[in-house]
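Incident log, support desk, overnight shift.

02:14 A customer reports that sequence design results differ from what the structure should imply. Their input is reproduced verbatim below. On-call engineer (initials T.W.) acknowledged and began investigating.
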């Protein structure tokens, strides 16, 4: 049972009566000010585009393998990646960001003094995440809905442009490398043919036996495979390190071919050796010619490397400010502050 001198709830209510009007006014003013702030706060819009990362079959090259083996300024590529991981790394890179800052004059838009500051703000306003089925979702926030959608779509454009440049660079390196080997093989083939012709004119040779022809053709195939593997290793080393899985695999295949070549029987006859040399150079020349044409095609290819599943459109609804939420928060905070003020005054008046 409460003590006779202890104040009851009605006593507190009576003591708070003189302050209720001012507390209510404070709550009303706080709520109104919050509402005015919510309506004056500049609106922020979010645009979204969904990308399907390029696959090796679509682009004609393995972008993740290439980018892991080369040093691209302003870009950090994880050591173990898939196409979607590489796409994320490219989109987040300084290289793409700097291009967009210049393209949209974001230094002026964001009202900053330096390009570095504009780049940081662009990264703060942009987000990237992996969606379902390996898609990449690009989101950009901006106070202008059209600029937000343009920036989101520009990320896809710059990603496609970067992929094309990388592919064309690889294709050009491959073509030049194979072209050099093709010229060397052509010269070696001409020398071998001249040697065989000279031998035939001098010795009036007869045809080789079936066993000798079989040995010659087997050796020619092995030497052609050896040359083809050496070309593949040379091309791969243009963009991948010696310790990469692709180079190690090619090295193992070359080791096995070399072992088979060492086990070939010695033909003995000089004619057989000359014929074998010609056939080897013919097969190597045929393989290199095919690789050269493929490299020329890859260098000249100009196809889209990024499939845009959903193109960003200017959003018609803002994501911030959420006016109802802000007004509700203003009312709650004002009410709490007013209640504390009333309680403090009631407690002070009772002590007096």
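02:41 Re-run completed on a clean worker. Output:
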């Amino acid at each position: 049972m409460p003590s006779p001198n202890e104040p009851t709830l009605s006593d507190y209510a009576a003591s708070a009566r003189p302050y209720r009007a001012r507390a209510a006014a404070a709550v009303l003013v706080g709520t109104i000010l919050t509402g005015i702030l919510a309506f004056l706060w500049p609106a922020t819009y979010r645009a979204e585009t969904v990308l399907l990362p390029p696959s090796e079959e679509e682009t004609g090259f393995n972008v993740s393998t290439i980018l892991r083996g080369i040093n691209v300024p302003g870009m950090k590529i994880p050591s173990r990646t898939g196409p979607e991981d590489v796409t994320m790394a490219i989109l987040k890179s300084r290289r793409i960001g700097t291009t967009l800052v210049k393209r949209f004059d974001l230094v002026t838009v964001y009202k900053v003094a330096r390009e570095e500051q504009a780049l940081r703000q662009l990264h703060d306003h942009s987000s990237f995440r992996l969606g379902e089925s390996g898609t990449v979702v690009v989101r950009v926030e901006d106070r202008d809905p059209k600029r937000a959608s343009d920036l989101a779509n520009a990320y896809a454009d710059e990603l496609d442009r970067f992929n094309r440049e990388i592919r064309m660079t690889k294709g050009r390196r491959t073509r030049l490398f194979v072209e050099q080997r093709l010229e060397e093989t052509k010269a070696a083939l001409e020398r071998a043919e001249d040697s065989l012709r000279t031998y035939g004119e001098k010795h009036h040779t007869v045809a080789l036996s079936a066993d000798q022809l079989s040995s010659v053709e087997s050796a020619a195939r092995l030497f052609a495979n050896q040359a083809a593997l050496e070309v593949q290793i040379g091309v791969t080393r243009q963009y991948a390190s010696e310790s990469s899985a692709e180079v190690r695999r090619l090295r193992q295949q070359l080791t096995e071919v070399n072992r088979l070549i060492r086990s070939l029987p010695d033909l003995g006859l000089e004619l057989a050796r000359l014929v074998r040399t010609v056939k080897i150079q013919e097969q190597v020349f045929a393989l290199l010619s095919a690789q050269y044409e493929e490299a020329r095609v890859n260098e000249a290819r100009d196809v889209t490397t990024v499939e845009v599943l959903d193109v960003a459109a200017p959003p018609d609804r803002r994501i911030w400010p959420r006016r109802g939420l802000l007004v509700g928060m203003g009312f709650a905070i004002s009410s709490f502050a007013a209640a504390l003020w009333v309680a403090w005054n009631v407690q002070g008046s009772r002590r007096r």
